[in-house]
Amino acid sequence: MPSQRTHPLIDAERQKIARRYRNNNLRLSIGSLIVSAVLLAVILLLDLSKGFVGLLSGTIGTRPLLIAVYFSALYFVFSFLTLPFGYAEGYVIEHKYGFSTQNRRAWFMDWLKSFLVTYVIGLLVFEVIYLLIPLAPTLWWLWLSAIMIGFSVILTNVFPVVILPLFYRSSPIQNDEVNKEITQLSSRAGVDVQGVYSIDLSSKTTKANAAVVGLGNTKRILIGDTLLSKYELNEVLSAVAHEIVHYSEHHMWWLILWQSLTTLLMFYIFYRIQPVVYAWFGFVSAADVAAFPVFAIIFFAISYVFRPVGAGLSRYYERRADSGALELTGDTLAFVHLIAKFCNEQLSIAFPNRFIEWYKYSHPSPGKRIEFAERWRKK
Ligand SMILES: [Zn+2]
Q1: What is the pLDDT of residue 289?
Q2: Predicted local confidence at residue 176, as pLDDT
Q3: Is this prediction's pTM over 0.85?
Q4: Mean pLDDT across the chain, nearest whole number?
Q5: DSSP assigned state of 205
Q6: Positions in the chain whose pLDDT score sits under 50
Q7: 210 CA distance to ligand 1 centroid (A)?
Q8: Cβ(284)–Cβ(278) under 8 Å?
Q9: CA–centroid distance, residue 318 to ligand 1 (Å)
Q10: What are the residues whose beta carbon lies below 5 Å from ligand 1 (ion)?
Q11: What is the pLDDT of residue 174?
Q12: How many Å lie between the centroid of ligand 1 and the Cα of residue 247?
C-alpha cells in the first residue's frame, strides 16, 4: 500500500514514476538474489564444493594457493551470472528513466574496474578468513573482527586517493563565490575543512549529490558537478552545510565505531551457530574451504537481520547533519527546496512504507526530512 501522505513541493506525477522505477529495481535485485541462492543450493546439493576442493588438493600443494584458486573460481562464476542483472539495473533502467549519461562501453569499463577492485579486496579477506580459522580455532571470530575493523579504517582512508580516482575526476572548486560561502560556513561551524572538491558525477549520471569521504589525512568534502550546475547557490550551500556537519562532528569515526561493535557481535553469533548449520550440510570444521557456501549463507542471513541496525545508525547521523545544517545556514526554505528537488529529480519515494524505511533507508525519507525542517523553522 503506497502511503497517501504528500507535500505541496512533491510532484505527484513524478511520485508515480518513482514507484515504477523502484519496482523495476526491486525486481532486479530479487532476481539477482534468487540466482545467487539457486547457485549456492546447487553447489551444496550436488556436493560440487567438496568435489572441487578435493580436485584442487590433489594438484595444489600449498593452502594459500588452494584458497586463492577456490575463491577466484567462485567469484568469477557469481560475477558473470549476476552481470545481466547489474547491466539491467545500472545501464538499461538508468537510461530508461533518463539518468545515465554513459554509453555501453563506458558502463562496461566501470563494471570491469569494480569487478577487479572487488576481486582484490575479496581475495585478501578470503585468505585472511581461511588462514586464520585453523590458527585460532576458538577465537578466530575475535581476531577476524579486529582485522576487519582495521581493514575498514584503512580502506576508508585510502578510498578518496586510490579507489575513487579510478571512477571519477575531482578538482578544487573554481567558482569564487561558492568557495567564499563555503569558507564562511566552515568557520561558523568552527572547523577547518581541508579540502572541498568538485567531482564529475555528470560523466555517469544526471543525479546530483554531495558527500564526505576519507578519514584522517584524506578527509574531504565532495560536491557533484551536477549539484553545482543545476541547483541554486543557497540550495548548494544547504547541501554543503549538511556535509560540513558530518565533517565537524566526525560522523565517519562514530559510524566506524558502531559498525565495529556490530561486526564483533555478528561474528560472535556466526561462531556460535556455525557448528550446527555446518553439520546439516555434512561439514565438520569451519576451517574447511569447501564449506564456504555455508559460510556465505549464514553470513548473509545474519547481515539481513542486522541491516536495520546499520540503517538506523546512519539515519541518526543524517538527521544530526540535517539539523546542524539548518542551524548553520538558518535557511529552512533553501533546505526544503533542496530535498524536494532531489526527490523529484531522482525519483525517490517521498513517503515510503514505514517498515521498509526502518529496515534499510540510510537517510530519513525525503518527506520526513522536509517535515523535520519545517518543524525546525516553527521552533
Ligand atoms: Zn549526509
Answers
A1: 93
A2: 86
A3: yes
A4: 93
A5: B
A6: none
A7: 8
A8: yes
A9: 5
A10: 318, 321
A11: 85
A12: 10
| Of 246, 233, 231, 256, residue with least CA distance to 193 | 246
Q: Could you give the C-alpha distances from 61 to 64, 69, 130, 378, in angstroms and in order?
A: 9, 12, 16, 71
Q: Is the separation of the CB atoms in 200 and 297 below 8 Å?
A: no
Cα–Cα nearest to 340, from 372, 376, 377:
372
Residue-level pLDDT at 2 = 56
Which grid cell is 11?
Answer: 510532484
CA–centroid distance, residue 217 to ligand 1 (Å): 20
Q: In this structure, are residues 378 and 332 in contact, taking their beta carbons and an 8 Å threshold?
A: no
pLDDT of residue 194: 76
Residue 170's Cβ-count burial label (10 Å; 0-12, 13-18, 19+) is: buried
C-alpha count within 13 angstroms, C-beta hemisphere, residue 146: 6
| Cβ-based neighbours of 270, under 8 Å, separated by 6 or more | 141, 298, 299, 302
Neighbours of 30 (CB within 10 A): 11
Main-chain phi, psi angles of 210, to 5 degrees: -145, 155
Q: 171-244, superfamily in CATH?
A: Metalloproteases ("zincins"), catalytic domain (3.30.2010.10)
Q: How much distance in Å is there from the Cα of 98 to the middle of ligand 1?
A: 25
**Cβ contacts of 66-70, under 8 Å, gap ≥ 24:** 66/289, 67/126, 67/127, 67/130, 67/131, 67/289, 68/123, 68/126, 68/127, 70/289, 70/290, 70/292
Orientation of helix 292-329 relative to helix 251-280, angle to 10°: 160
Grid coordinates representing 71 are: 575463491
Which residues 6+ apart lie within 8 Å of 325 measured at CB?
238, 241, 242, 244, 245, 335
For residue 120 the three cell numbers come to: 582484490
Q: Quote the ligand 1 centre to 166 CA distance (angstroms).
A: 23
Query: How many residues make up the chain in this entry?
Result: 379
Ligand 1 centre to CA of 312 (Å) is 13
Instruction: Give the Å distance between the CA of 325 and the centre of ligand 1.
Output: 10
Which amino acid, residue 229? S
Looking at the chain, which residues constitute the CATH 3.30.2010.10 domain(s)? 171-244
